[in-house]
Fold this sequence. Notes:
By secondary structure, the protein is an alpha+beta fold. The protein has one domain (4-135, 146-285): Roll (Thiol Ester Dehydrase, Chain A), CATH 3.10.129.10. Helices cover 20% and strands 34% of the residues. It has seven helices and ten strands. The protein has helices at residues 20-30, 46-53, 55-58, 61-64, 176-186, 196-201, 211-223, and strands at 14-17, 69-79, 88-101, 104-115, 118-130, 170-172, 232-239, 249-260, 263-272, 275-285. Strand 8 (249-260) and strand 9 form a beta hairpin. 39% of the residues are buried.
Amino acid sequence: MTLDALxxxxxxxxxxxxxxxxxxxYVAATGDDPDRWVDVAPPSYAGAxxxxxxxxxxxxxxxxxxxxxxxxxxQRFLWHGPLDVxxxxxxxxxxxxxxxxxxxxxxxxxxxxxxxxxRLLDSTSTFLLGEEPAAEPGVDHGEPPAPLRGPNEAPSRVxxxxxxxxxxxxxxxASRVDLVRYAGASGDFNAIHYDHEAARGAGLDGIxxxxxxxxxxxxxxxxxxxxxxxxxxxxxxxxRAAMRPAISSTVRGVINGEPADGLERxxxxxxxxxxxxxxxxxxxxxx
Length: 287
C-alpha cells in the first residue's frame, strides 16, 4: 500500500496551551537563555508545537507500517507573532503532498497554529518514510556514556556583529541524557534518538541528535540579533547529515546583506569536523 491517497488529508484539530512549565522545560533542554524566555516562548518552541500535531499523522495505522525509517529532511517555520506564555492555541495538521521515489516516500506535512487573535505560526515539514533502510549501518561502536557531552553554550542576549558580518559562534553538544530530555520537552519520540537498536535498524551507526534540536541552536544564534519578543519571521532548515551524541559542534551565522524593511537575513549552519550537518537561514526582525 502506498501513502499517495493521503494527499490533501486534514487531521483533527488539537487544542493546546503554551504552559510556563513546559516552556521552561524546553528552554532548559535546548540550552537557551532562561532569563529571556519567561513571558514568551523562544521561536524554536515551534518544534514542540509541530509534534503536538504530527503524531496524529505518524501514528495512524496506515502510516506506521512505513515508518521503520523516519527522517526529517527539511523544515520551514513562519512566525506571525510572539508565542505568548499562557496562550491557548488551535493546531491543524494536513498532508500537503506525497511523492514516492523508489522505496522511499516523501511527505510534506503542514501545521497551522492559531491563537485567539489569528494565525501565529505556519510550519511545513518534509518527512522521509521507508519500510527498509537505504543502507546498512557501519561498525557498531556502541554508545557514549549517557551524561557525556561537549560544550553547550547559551546565546548572548543581543549578538554583536564581528568582522565581515560574521556572528560569534556557539559551541553546542548533546548527551544521550540531553536527547531524552529534549524528547520529553518537544514531544519528538522518534526511537532513533534514544534506542540504539532502533537506530541501527534504521541504517544508522547509533542514536542521533534530533534535527530540530540542532535547528533550535541555530534559532538561538539568529534570535540573539534582536531584542523583540518575536525576533524571527522565518526559519528554513535543511538536515544534511546525522550528529551523534557527545560530539562537539559549532553553530555559525553570517549576515547576508543589509537589513530591509526591518528584516535581516542570517545564513546559518551547524558544523562538526568540517561537515555541515544542518544548513539554513533565518529572517530576523531587527530591533
